[in-house]
Write a structure and sequence with these properties.
By secondary structure, this protein is α+β, with helices and mostly antiparallel strands. Helix content is 34%, strand content 35%.
Amino acid sequence: MLKHHLIVFTVICLFFAIPSSFAAPYDRNQAVPVEKVEFGQVISVRNITEKQLVEDRNTGWKTFGGALIGGVIGHQFGGGSGQDVATVLGALLGAGVANRYGDSSYYQELRLVEMMIALDTGEQVMVLQDLDPGMIFNVNDEVRVVYLRGYVRVDRQM
């Protein structure tokens, strides 16, 4: 009976350990179709610094590994049903310790630039994008606004 619970516990740990995948909107060195390009002039510029929590995506695997090691160690103690209880307790303790001390999350500082742009069509748009030290924007700069699938990018006109 307890072995059945141990199997269920292992399956549940595996389910939560699988990291959810997400697609980044922009990859380097990749050609993406351009939907529209507009030209305009920068009205205002503001540099923003923001902190973002980067979570450890391997926490589930670490917890599962702790449960596995704890279960193996716990299995070494007792006999009969006592051994099953020791195995389950070892797995729970191992998972708890790995979950508590295995987290490698950290804060990342993001440097962004917010621009208000007056387009040649008469419209105004506000764009927030990563700060590129090689492309500093100033008020009255002539820029192009490149619309890609799901996002926009601003750079200086050449």
